[in-house]
Design goal:
This protein folds into two domains: about 400 residues, no CATH class; about 230 residues, no CATH class. It is built from 34 helices and eleven strands. Strand 5, helix 9 and strand 6 form a beta-alpha-beta unit. One of its GO terms (cellular component) is nucleus.
């Protein structure tokens, strides 16, 4: 079993580095995306800042939208300022950005260390400028629901990534009951966009696979933001972007000449050493798994990185490996006879690379003697091919650490498929805990219901056991989500019927006990309402999974089907997982309404109570609640009595008549 596990890891490593890079290189995707980027550069000084095409050549053909970073670069050049100001990280909690990226900032307090999600200021300014454009809003409406590829070169790539994130956020928020449309963002030579918190948030939302960053071996721009912000030569990033302008446009923009002159005066070797030093520090910090970033640079990669060289391409989809390989490929110098690659050439070579890479795949290449040794395994050969394709020869100083980094990035754990299989076994072992809570529920169905029995700690021994099983189940599901957040499970795990159904059943059975525990400890008085301040993240995610399943799996969970088919008996579990939290709020409001003298406040309370009465009555009439809800001594039955008594009052009847 152990050998099989090791074999699968080796195959996975080979596939996700060289083979995936070869697949991308041989497909027309990169060439088409670069063609759009070139078109955007030709009109980059225009007011739009983007071009689009495709989507009309047949069903399923994606729309390709390319963004130019020229406007952002001109703004930075005209405004002056150093790297600490232009590239400073800006949090997405603000009024404007917060609404545009709501899912990314929704769970910020849960991020390690409380680091807020942030992106670089220059790219965010360019994106917000786009959002104010009526033409851009028209474009978003036109491509809504379609397969789309967002792309961009240099700063345009960073803006394209923000547009893709916004598009994914909007699709996630507005289409809870529909699968998200296919979205891919392809960037060429793009600077780093966000901090570690952004990378974690993208992993949490399962969006890392939507981003593909193409980086040439000696391009300084994708690696420059590893340096401390106060030492970054801004004119390099700005000049690289403006260098893509047509000659006529460069002459028309007076500021371009100044930036170009500063670039010409820059010592290329000093620039290379600056980047190599700080990228190396970042790679070492990733190796040591340092919790903080002493180098002073907040930026880290996300998504997949396609590391290109004249010898081919290799792809890494692990953020830690991406940092390390960005350093290793840059530090690996070319042969002396080829000479140093000028920064402008390395940043503008992507058109040649995407055209030449498919040709290299057709050539049979010989590996060095160390690779072809008889003792070398297929796994080692795959690693060597990946290193060679990314531009690191066997003789390079960086070859040994890069080889180890690639191996480590895949050997930190088993493949997602094996993890999922192991998790299924653990789910079977934890099922008896769920069965014990079901038995506990059945004991109290006839009188108080298990919610009130747990809240009041009736039968202390049974309560202690049920509480222990509740905690064990919570630990199991929190562990599942932790694996999901760190990409240790398959990308479609949250859409697999087995796991969606298991999570939903767990939620309906156990969340009432969490609500009871919350109110028994009076946390609703110190923290606030359970629904808004006390609900665990796992339940919110399970809600989202179930809603998505309701649209994508009609045979087992179609929400429209549940509204047309009436139950003949009460449900085994109440279908509203927050039902008991709403009952508790209704009881408190009813008690407050009894002594309320202000008619405006009383009317507001009665309106809320009337809405809950309609909601709960509909659930009961449709038998969407468990039998314990209508138990004689349940909190819901007691609230119904209290509510009916309150409605006998004259002033209450007068107000309710309006509703």
């Amino acid at each position: 079993m152990e050998d099989a596990s090791r074999g699968e890891e080796e195959n996975s490593m080979f596939e996700t580095s060289h083979v995936l890079g070869a697949l991308l290189a041989s497909s027309p995707l990169l060439a088409r995306a670069w063609d759009r980027c070139a078109a955007a550069a030709d009109g980059g000084a225009s007011s739009l800042g983007f071009v689009h095409g495709g989507g009309g050549g047949g069903e399923g053909e994606p729309v390709c939208v390319a963004f130019s970073g020229v406007q952002a670069a001109l703004s930075a050049a005209a405004g002056g300022g150093g790297g600490a100001e232009i590239f400073k990280p800006v949090g997405l909690r603000g009024d404007a950005a917060g609404r545009l990226f709501a899912p990314l900032v929704a769970a910020e307090p849960e991020d390690a260390g409380g680091e807020p999600v942030a992106v670089q200021a220059l790219a965010l300014q360019g994106f917000l400028r786009l959002c104010r454009s009526p033409e851009f809003q028209v474009l978003l409406n036109q491509i809504r629901g379609k397969a789309v590829v967002f792309t961009g070169h240099s700063l345009g790539g960073a803006i394209a990534a923000l547009v893709a994130l916004h598009y994914l956020c909007t699709s996630s928020s507005s289409s809870a009951f529909a699968p998200a449309p296919p979205v891919l963002c392809v960037t060429f030579g793009s600077p780093l966009l966000g901090n570690q918190a952004l990378s974690r948030a993208i992993l949490r939302e399962r969006w890392a696979g939507n981003f593909c960053h193409v980086v040439s071996q000696h391009d300084v721009v994708p690696r420059l933001l590893f340096c401390p912000l106060n030492v970054i030569p801004v004119h390099i990033v700005v000049g690289m972007q403006l260098h893509q302008l047509p000659v006529r446009a460069r002459r028309a923009a007076g500021v371009v000449a100044t930036v170009t002159a500063r670039m010409a005066d820059t010592n290329q070797e000093s620039l290379r050493q600056l980047i190599q030093e700080h990228a190396g520090e970042a790679a070492i910090e990733q190796k040591l798994a340092a919790p903080e970033i002493p180098s002073g640079s907040p930026y880290r990669p996300f998504g997949a990185y396609v590391l290109c060289s004249p010898d081919g391409a290799a792809c890494v989809d692990n953020p830690t490996a991406a940092v390390q390989m960005l350093y290793a490929t840059f530090a690996a110098r070319r042969a002396p006879e080829t000479g140093a690659v000028p920064p402008e050439a390395a940043h503008s070579c992507y058109g040649d690379l995407v055209l030449s890479m498919p040709h290299h795949l057709l050539l049979k290449r010989r590996l060095g003697a160390t690779v072809t040794a008889p003792a070398a395994s297929n796994y080692d050969v795959g690693i060597s091919i990946a290193l060679e394709a990314s531009g690191i020869t066997g003789e390079a100083t960086e070859a040994a650490p890069a080889r180890q980094w690639l191996k480590t990035s895949k050997r930190v754990g088993r493949s997602p498929s094996l993890n999922c299989a192991s998790l299924a076994t653990r789910l079977g072992r934890i099922t008896p805990c769920r069965a014990q809570i079901e038995w506990y529920k059945a004991l109290f169905d006839a009188n108080t219901g298990y919610y009130d029995a747990f809240k009041q700690r009736l039968s202390p021994k049974k309560f202690s056991k049920a509480n222990m099983y509740r905690i064990k189940l919570a630990q199991f599901w929190d562990g599942v989500l932790s694996m999901l957040d760190t990409s240790q499970l398959p990308y479609d795990f949250h859409r697999r019927a087995k796991w969606v159904n298991a999570a939903h059943f767990y939620q309906l059975l156990v969340e009432p006990l969490d609500i009871a525990d919350y109110h028994r400890n009076n946390l609703h008085r110190t923290r606030g309402s359970y629904i808004t301040h006390g609900r665990e993240r796992r339940y919110e995610l399970f809600d989202k999974w179930w809603k998505q399943k309701g649209c994508t799996d009609p045979s087992t969970g179609d929400t429209s089907a549940t509204t047309t088919a009436r139950r003949s008996k009460f449900a085994g579990l109440t279908q509203d997982p927050c039902f008991w939290a709403r009952v508790e709020e209704a009881r408190e409001q009813t008690e407050s309404a009894k002594s309320e003298r202000d008619m405006t406040s009383l009317a507001r309370m009665l309106e809320d109570l009337h809405k809950f009465e309609r909601h709960s009555s509909e659930l009961v009439e449709n038998k969407e609640v468990s039998i314990d809800v209508v138990a004689p001594q349940s909190s819901y039955s007691l609230w119904v009595k209290e509510w009916n008594e309150l409605k006998l009052r004259e002033e209450v009847r007068t107000i309710l008549f309006q509703f």
